[in-house]
């Protein structure tokens, strides 16, 4: 009998979960409360309760090669950093190509998910939904994948802002922001310097009389552009850089990164310098914010101390009068209101999930949360990797540890995050992108082995080591292997360059002696680093390969 799976949400996490179910021979039914796929990336002019919301101008800050699914490259002519409308187009292409739409029930909300009375024996779930006519339906499923995300419940901490009830202007959360049209000629205070706060401050400064950006901690601000105009993530999110992070002290790496950032714009001079180090939290990605500070359109201010009528008082004693609008870019709460409270285990500030996916206290591993993760990298490949693991567990190909072992692992992860990152109730979970992808890939059996590639496919080895850690690397081998993965890796920079080919220009020829010497020295460096890396984490495939290469006696 085919096992049935309920998938809650048809955003990118839900779409890749449907596909993973189909690949494993499971029968998915996806419930989506809106009338379209896309989740967060489906723009609507009016924000809808309990749903993620974006603004009209939103452009993703992850480049297309780093955000696409592992066996479906984004079209070459799409821009490297895409407007939300292009991202939604890509999701539609993906859904149509893999025939996912027929498994989605649109305008159907999930009201509750409960364990069946025989759960201890069957592990099954009862899912109650409400359709577009308001009629309730009950369904039975063998397993459930929750893909509801964590940007649906805006955090509006009004009690932390003394005098807000006396404010004479208008205030709202960034969740309600759609564009700067209503801010023309206004004096605007944006509270919060995350990516949304930075975007809104920059965009509103084009029409507002003055924008003030208030921050408690400050922030490191990086650009999407790197050397020679390459996308910054394709330049630095590589396995070689990841190896360096394993070998070198993180404080030294932070110092080096901060030095490079300050060479572009001194964070102290620009009043941006934070209280934390560069790699202790995800930085703000915004190319325009320093320019707006430089030209006076945006003024950075400390935390708000008090609001008096139309005046805003900051902690340094400065006052801004005649404020018309306050935008709270203060993050989001996370919640799973349709789940029973005893399903989700709490660990510190966060929902304690085994490897950020499985509730560790259930008798049967028949529920998973996909896409509930935070890293300096796109959610799409991370959710895809999670869903590939989840469906193999549901199918019975993989076994989870005991509940006790999972709980222990959850507590270790919580302590590790507290040690390495700045976490709070609003940002309770953060992982290193490459480490996490490799960890879950190891569970699936698709983690690429540098040692194996070195001996069997040296040209591919070079691209996997030196090139960006794109999702194609996790389709080279193992379950779900894709015959086009190697070619996709070899052509990823061609797709990156394609949108620039709008005017024919003469290209540089040849390579300088200095360039060749630099490449030679870097090759020697990576050889030593890789050898040390293999010494610390010897891959089992290397032992297997050497045994095959050793002559056998008759």
TrEMBL record:
Name the Gene3D superfamilies on file.
FAD/NAD(P)-binding domain
Q: Which InterPro entries match?
A: FAD/NAD-bd_sf, Flavin_mOase, Flavin_mOase-like, Flavin_mOase_1, FMO-like
Q: Tell me the compartments it is located in.
A: Endoplasmic reticulum membrane
Tell me which UniProt keywords the record has, alphabetically: Endoplasmic reticulum, FAD, Flavoprotein, Membrane, Monooxygenase, NADP, Oxidoreductase, Transmembrane, Transmembrane helix
Q: Which reaction does it catalyse?
A: N,N-dimethylaniline + NADPH + O2 + H(+) = N,N-dimethylaniline N-oxide + NADP(+) + H2O; hypotaurine + NADPH + O2 + H(+) = taurine + NADP(+) + H2O; hypotaurine + NADH + O2 + H(+) = taurine + NAD(+) + H2O; trimethylamine + NADPH + O2 = trimethylamine N-oxide + NADP(+) + H2O
Predominant location: endoplasmic reticulum
EC number, UniProt record: 1.-.-.-
Domain of life assignment: Eukaryota
A single GO cellular-component term on record:
endoplasmic reticulum membrane
According to its record, how does it sit in the membrane?
Single-pass membrane protein
Q: Kindly list the cofactors needed.
A: FAD
Task: Give one Pfam hit by family name.
Answer: FMO-like
The molecular function terms in GO held by this entry are: flavin adenine dinucleotide binding; N,N-dimethylaniline monooxygenase activity; NADP binding; trimethylamine monooxygenase activity
* UniProt keyword annotation of Plastid present: no
Query: What does the similarity note say?
Result: Belongs to the FMO family.
Q: Per its database record, what is this protein's job?
A: Broad spectrum monooxygenase that catalyzes the oxygenation of a wide variety of nitrogen- and sulfur-containing compounds including xenobiotics. Catalyzes the S-oxygenation of hypotaurine to produce taurine, an organic osmolyte involved in cell volume regulation as well as a variety of cytoprotective and developmental processes.
Task: Provide the protein name.
Answer: Flavin-containing monooxygenase
Provenance organism = Salmo salar (Atlantic salmon)
The coding gene here is FMO5
């Amino acid at each position: 009998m085919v096992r049935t799976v309920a998938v809650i949400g048809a955003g990118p996490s839900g779409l890749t979960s449907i596909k993973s179910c189909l690949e494993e021979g499971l029968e998915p039914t996806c419930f989506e409360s809106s009338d379209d796929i896309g989740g967060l990336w489906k723009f609507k002019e009016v924000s809808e309760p309990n749903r993620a919301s974006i603004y009209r101008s939103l452009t993703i800050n992850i480049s297309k090669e780093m955000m696409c699914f592992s066996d479906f490259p984004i079209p070459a002519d799409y821009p490297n950093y895409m407007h939300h409308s292009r991202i939604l187009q890509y999701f539609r292409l993906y859904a149509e190509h893999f025939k996912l739409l027929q498994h989605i029930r649109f305008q159907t909300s999930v009201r509750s998910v409960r364990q069946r009375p025989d759960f201890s024996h069957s592990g099954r779930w009862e899912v109650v939904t409400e359709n577009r006519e308001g009629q309730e339906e009950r369904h039975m499923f063998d397993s459930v994948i929750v893909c509801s995300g964590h940007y649906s419940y805006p955090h509006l901490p009004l009690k932390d802002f003394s005098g807000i009830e006396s404010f004479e202007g208008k205030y709202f959360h960034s969740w309600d922001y759609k564009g700067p049209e209503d801010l023309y000629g206004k004096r605007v205070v944006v509270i919060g310097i995350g990516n949304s706060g930075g975007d809104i401050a920059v965009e509103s400064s084009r029409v507002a009389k003055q924008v003030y950006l208030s921050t408690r901690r400050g922030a490191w601000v990086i650009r999407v552009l790197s050397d020679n105009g390459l996308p910054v993530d394709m330049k630095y999110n590589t396995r070689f850089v990841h190896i360096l992070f394993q070998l070198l002290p993180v404080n030294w790496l932070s110092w080096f990164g901060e030095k490079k950032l300050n060479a572009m714009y001194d964070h102290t001079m620009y009043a941006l310098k934070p209280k934390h180090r560069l790699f202790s939290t995800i930085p703000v990605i915004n190319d325009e914010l320093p320019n707006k500070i430089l030209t006076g359109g945006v003024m950075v201010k400390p935390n708000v101390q008090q609001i008096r009528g139309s005046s805003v008082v900051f902690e340094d004693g400065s006052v801004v009068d005649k404020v018309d609008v306050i935008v709270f870019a203060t993050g989001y709460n996370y919640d799973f209101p349709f789940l029973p409270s005893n399903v989700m285990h709490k660990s510190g500030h966060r929902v304690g999930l085994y490897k950020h996916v499985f509730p560790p206290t259930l008798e049967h591993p028949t529920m998973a949360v996909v896409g509930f993760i935070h890293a300096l990298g796109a959610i799409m490949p991370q959710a895809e990797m999670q869903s590939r693991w989840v469906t193999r567990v549901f199918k019975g190909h993989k076994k989870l540890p005991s509940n006790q072992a999972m709980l222990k692992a959850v507590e270790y992860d919580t302590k590790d995050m507290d040690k390495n990152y700045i976490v709070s109730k609003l940002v309770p979970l953060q992982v290193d992108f490459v480490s996490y992808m490799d960890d879950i890939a190891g569970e699936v059996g698709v983690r690429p082995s540098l040692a194996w590639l070195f001996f069997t496919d040296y040209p591919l080895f070079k691209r996997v080591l030196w090139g960006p850690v794109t999702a194609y690397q996790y389709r080279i081998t193992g379950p779900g292997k894709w015959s086009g993965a190697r070619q996709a890796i070899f052509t990823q920079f061609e797709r990156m360059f394609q949108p620039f080919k709008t005017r024919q220009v003469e290209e540089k020829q040849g390579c300088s002696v200095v360039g060749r010497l630099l490449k030679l020295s870097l090759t020697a460096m990576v050889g030593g680093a890789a050898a040390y890396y293999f010494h610390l984490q010897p891959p089992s495939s290397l032992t297997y390969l050497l045994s095959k290469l050793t002559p056998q006696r008759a």
